[in-house]
Design a protein that fits this description.
CATH class: Alpha Beta
Order of helices and strands: EEEHEHEHHHH
Shape: globular
Strand order of the largest sheet: 3-2-1-4-5
Distance between the termini: 17 Å
Helix content: 40-55%
CATH architecture: 2-Layer Sandwich
CATH superfamily: Ribonuclease H-like superfamily/Ribonuclease H
Number of domains: 1
Largest sheet: 5 strands, mixed
Amino acid sequence: MRVLGVDPGLTRCGLGVVEGRPGRAALVAVGVATTPASDALGLRLVALERVFEAWLDLHQPDAVAVERVFAQANVRTVMGTAQAGAVAITCAARRGLPVVLHTPSEVKAAVTGNGRADKAQVGAMVARLLRLEGPPKPADAADALALAICSVWRSPVQARLAAAVASAER
Protein backbone atom coordinates (compact mmCIF):
# COMPACT_ATOMS: atom_id res chain seq x y z
CA MET A 1 0.00 0.00 0.00
CA ARG A 2 1.32 3.45 -0.92
CA VAL A 3 0.27 6.49 1.13
CA LEU A 4 0.92 10.19 0.65
CA GLY A 5 1.25 11.89 4.04
CA VAL A 6 0.55 15.62 4.25
CA ASP A 7 1.60 17.77 7.20
CA PRO A 8 -0.43 20.83 6.16
CA GLY A 9 0.77 24.39 6.42
CA LEU A 10 0.71 27.52 4.31
CA THR A 11 4.35 28.50 4.79
CA ARG A 12 5.77 24.96 4.93
CA CYS A 13 3.78 21.89 4.00
CA GLY A 14 5.44 18.52 4.54
CA LEU A 15 4.91 15.77 1.96
CA GLY A 16 5.96 12.17 2.32
CA VAL A 17 5.18 9.00 0.41
CA VAL A 18 5.63 5.63 2.08
CA GLU A 19 4.95 2.17 0.75
CA GLY A 20 4.43 -0.78 3.03
CA ARG A 21 2.22 -2.82 5.27
CA PRO A 22 1.79 -3.04 9.04
CA GLY A 23 5.23 -3.41 10.61
CA ARG A 24 7.14 -2.57 7.43
CA ALA A 25 7.52 0.69 5.53
CA ALA A 26 9.84 2.05 2.86
CA LEU A 27 10.49 5.60 1.76
CA VAL A 28 9.28 6.52 -1.70
CA ALA A 29 9.66 10.32 -1.58
CA VAL A 30 9.83 13.22 0.84
CA GLY A 31 9.74 16.98 0.46
CA VAL A 32 8.37 20.29 1.61
CA ALA A 33 6.21 22.72 -0.35
CA THR A 34 6.62 26.38 0.57
CA THR A 35 4.69 29.51 -0.21
CA PRO A 36 5.74 33.09 0.54
CA ALA A 37 3.87 34.69 3.43
CA SER A 38 3.76 37.89 1.35
CA ASP A 39 1.54 36.26 -1.31
CA ALA A 40 -2.24 36.52 -1.16
CA LEU A 41 -4.02 33.57 0.46
CA GLY A 42 -5.66 32.45 -2.80
CA LEU A 43 -2.32 32.36 -4.61
CA ARG A 44 -0.77 30.33 -1.81
CA LEU A 45 -3.59 27.78 -1.89
CA VAL A 46 -3.38 27.47 -5.69
CA ALA A 47 0.40 26.93 -5.39
CA LEU A 48 -0.18 24.15 -2.85
CA GLU A 49 -2.86 22.59 -5.08
CA ARG A 50 -0.37 22.42 -7.95
CA VAL A 51 2.21 20.73 -5.74
CA PHE A 52 -0.34 18.21 -4.39
CA GLU A 53 -1.54 17.39 -7.91
CA ALA A 54 2.05 16.91 -9.09
CA TRP A 55 2.82 14.57 -6.17
CA LEU A 56 -0.38 12.60 -6.81
CA ASP A 57 0.51 12.29 -10.51
CA LEU A 58 4.10 11.30 -9.85
CA HIS A 59 3.68 8.90 -6.92
CA GLN A 60 0.21 7.41 -7.55
CA PRO A 61 -0.70 6.77 -3.88
CA ASP A 62 -3.49 4.41 -2.85
CA ALA A 63 -4.58 6.79 -0.07
CA VAL A 64 -3.79 10.19 1.43
CA ALA A 65 -3.20 10.84 5.14
CA VAL A 66 -3.59 14.39 6.44
CA GLU A 67 -2.93 15.68 9.93
CA ARG A 68 -6.19 16.51 11.69
CA VAL A 69 -6.25 20.16 12.72
CA PHE A 70 -6.25 20.68 16.46
CA ALA A 71 -7.02 23.76 18.55
CA GLN A 72 -4.18 26.14 19.31
CA ALA A 73 -3.98 29.57 20.86
CA ASN A 74 -2.92 31.01 17.49
CA VAL A 75 -6.12 31.05 15.42
CA ARG A 76 -4.28 32.35 12.35
CA THR A 77 -2.00 29.30 12.34
CA VAL A 78 -4.94 26.94 12.79
CA MET A 79 -6.80 28.56 9.89
CA GLY A 80 -3.81 28.31 7.55
CA THR A 81 -3.24 24.70 8.51
CA ALA A 82 -6.91 23.86 7.97
CA GLN A 83 -6.98 25.62 4.61
CA ALA A 84 -3.86 23.82 3.36
CA GLY A 85 -5.23 20.49 4.61
CA ALA A 86 -8.54 21.11 2.86
CA VAL A 87 -6.75 21.63 -0.46
CA ALA A 88 -4.94 18.29 -0.04
CA ILE A 89 -8.22 16.56 0.83
CA THR A 90 -9.94 18.12 -2.19
CA CYS A 91 -7.17 17.00 -4.55
CA ALA A 92 -7.41 13.43 -3.22
CA ALA A 93 -11.22 13.42 -3.35
CA ARG A 94 -11.19 14.68 -6.94
CA ARG A 95 -9.29 11.49 -7.83
CA GLY A 96 -11.47 9.23 -5.73
CA LEU A 97 -8.63 8.49 -3.29
CA PRO A 98 -9.50 7.65 0.29
CA VAL A 99 -8.40 10.26 2.85
CA VAL A 100 -7.57 9.44 6.44
CA LEU A 101 -7.19 12.14 9.10
CA HIS A 102 -4.86 11.43 12.01
CA THR A 103 -4.36 13.47 15.17
CA PRO A 104 -0.81 14.42 16.13
CA SER A 105 -0.95 12.21 19.24
CA GLU A 106 -2.19 9.24 17.17
CA VAL A 107 0.73 9.66 14.76
CA LYS A 108 3.27 10.02 17.58
CA ALA A 109 1.92 6.90 19.29
CA ALA A 110 2.05 4.91 16.04
CA VAL A 111 5.69 5.69 15.25
CA THR A 112 7.22 6.11 18.72
CA GLY A 113 4.87 4.28 21.08
CA ASN A 114 4.35 7.56 22.96
CA GLY A 115 1.51 9.94 22.05
CA ARG A 116 3.40 12.81 23.69
CA ALA A 117 6.71 12.32 21.89
CA ASP A 118 8.54 15.47 20.83
CA LYS A 119 9.55 16.38 17.27
CA ALA A 120 13.08 15.02 17.75
CA GLN A 121 11.76 11.63 18.86
CA VAL A 122 9.36 11.46 15.92
CA GLY A 123 12.13 12.38 13.47
CA ALA A 124 14.51 9.82 14.96
CA MET A 125 11.93 7.02 14.77
CA VAL A 126 10.93 7.93 11.21
CA ALA A 127 14.61 7.69 10.26
CA ARG A 128 14.93 4.34 12.01
CA LEU A 129 11.72 2.87 10.60
CA LEU A 130 12.58 3.93 7.05
CA ARG A 131 16.28 3.07 7.42
CA LEU A 132 17.47 6.62 6.74
CA GLU A 133 20.82 8.03 7.82
CA GLY A 134 19.12 10.76 9.82
CA PRO A 135 15.78 12.45 10.44
CA PRO A 136 14.31 14.19 7.39
CA LYS A 137 14.63 17.97 7.59
CA PRO A 138 12.76 20.15 8.25
CA ALA A 139 10.46 18.58 10.83
CA ASP A 140 7.48 19.08 8.49
CA ALA A 141 8.98 16.46 6.16
CA ALA A 142 9.48 13.98 8.99
CA ASP A 143 5.93 14.64 10.21
CA ALA A 144 4.52 13.93 6.73
CA LEU A 145 6.35 10.60 6.63
CA ALA A 146 5.12 9.80 10.14
CA LEU A 147 1.55 10.45 8.95
CA ALA A 148 2.01 8.09 6.03
CA ILE A 149 3.54 5.39 8.26
CA CYS A 150 0.71 5.78 10.76
CA SER A 151 -1.87 5.41 8.02
CA VAL A 152 -0.23 2.26 6.63
CA TRP A 153 0.08 0.73 10.11
CA ARG A 154 -3.02 1.95 11.94
CA SER A 155 -5.78 1.46 9.45
CA PRO A 156 -4.55 -1.21 7.06
CA VAL A 157 -7.83 -3.02 6.54
CA GLN A 158 -9.91 0.14 6.20
CA ALA A 159 -7.35 1.81 3.95
CA ARG A 160 -6.93 -1.29 1.75
CA LEU A 161 -10.68 -1.60 1.31
CA ALA A 162 -11.01 2.08 0.47
CA ALA A 163 -8.07 1.84 -1.96
CA ALA A 164 -9.63 -1.20 -3.65
CA VAL A 165 -12.94 0.62 -4.05
CA ALA A 166 -11.18 3.72 -5.41
CA SER A 167 -9.13 1.59 -7.81
CA ALA A 168 -12.25 -0.23 -9.05
CA GLU A 169 -13.98 3.10 -9.67
CA ARG A 170 -11.09 4.50 -11.77
